[in-house]
Amino acid sequence: xxxxxxxxxxxxxxxxxxxxxxxxxxxxxxxxxxxxxxxxxxxxxxxxxxxxxxxxxxxxxxxxxxxxxxxxxxxxxxxxxxxxxxxxxxxxxxxxxxxxxxxxxxxxxxxxxxxxxxxxxxxxxxxxxxxxxxxxxxxxxxxxxxxxxxxxxxxxxxxxxxxxxxxxxxxxxxxxxxxxxxxxxxxxxxxxxxxxxxxxxxxxxxxxxxxxxxxxxxxxxxxxxxxxxxxxxxxxxxxxxxxxxxxxxxxxxxxxxxxxxxxxxxxxxxxxxxxxxxxxxxxxxxxxxxxxxxxxxxxxxxxxxxxxxxxxxxxxxx
Length: 318
Description:
Layout: H1 2-14, H2 17-22, E1 30-34, E2 38-40, E3 45-50, E4 58-62, E5 79-82, E6 91-97, E7 113-118, E8 125-129, E9 133-135, E10 140-146, E11 152-158, E12 165-170, E13 172-174, E14 177-184, E15 193-200, E16 215-220, E17 227-230, E18 235-238, E19 241-247, E20 254-259, E21 262-269, E22 273-278, E23 283-290, E24 305-312
Parallel strand pairs: 2-7, 9-16, 18-24
Antiparallel strand pairs: 1-3, 3-5, 4-6, 6-7, 8-10, 10-14, 11-12, 11-15, 13-14, 15-16, 17-19, 19-22, 20-21, 20-23, 23-24
Domain Immunoglobulin-like beta-sandwich: 132-210
Pfam family, one: ig
Keywords: Disulfide bond, Immunoglobulin domain, Signal
């Protein structure tokens, strides 16, 4: 009962902290989530308190008033390990801490932290139009879509050595499904990274779908182009083994091969030969180069190498 009174006191004194703030004693603390505030259902997350002052204990407060059994009648030290998370854990959180120098004995409520729980609905799909390989200064449209009537979509962008960005998009009905478009352009190297899309409905904006498959947006044209050649010439027999060779004066850490504007899985470190194996697909191939610390920022493409496939290779006589 005593702990419950402390919690009520924390909220009541939030309204009068402005007086203390003018006296220089106010500390607007914050709450963070590790590894991320976007948590798959069934996983765990650590809520961590941050402040310029030394707090002894803190009290967690879920602002939407939903019941979280782990919080009932408890005070915590510095952090709280929460999980396995369920939809009940989704929502906005604050904390207040016991601080003897405050007139009330409690700090002001911290800044808001939103915890999103994913995996509540089936995953959405994410497309890049015209394609995810974008020349610098070009334009691209990212399209989230789902068979579920989502009222909003959320794009999360993971960039190299930077915190993730979260973009909220309005969902629109489209032929019995829902979708949202996000146009980017002119694109710069800052747009390169891995994108995922989630969907949510209006009455539960903190409960998200399973993420879409990852979509890598690659920016090309940042370094001089490579050259690409085929070991056996431009015409090969069907199912004949083929190797393509990518050459460059710049010693790239990674080489990439694409066909029809789509990156293949041939990301080969330091090696410039692409063993394609038995040849089955004709088309225009290009190669690119990139460095270890910027895998989504590529060189200009090589001139296209057009490979044609003829009839099956004849069997040797017995």
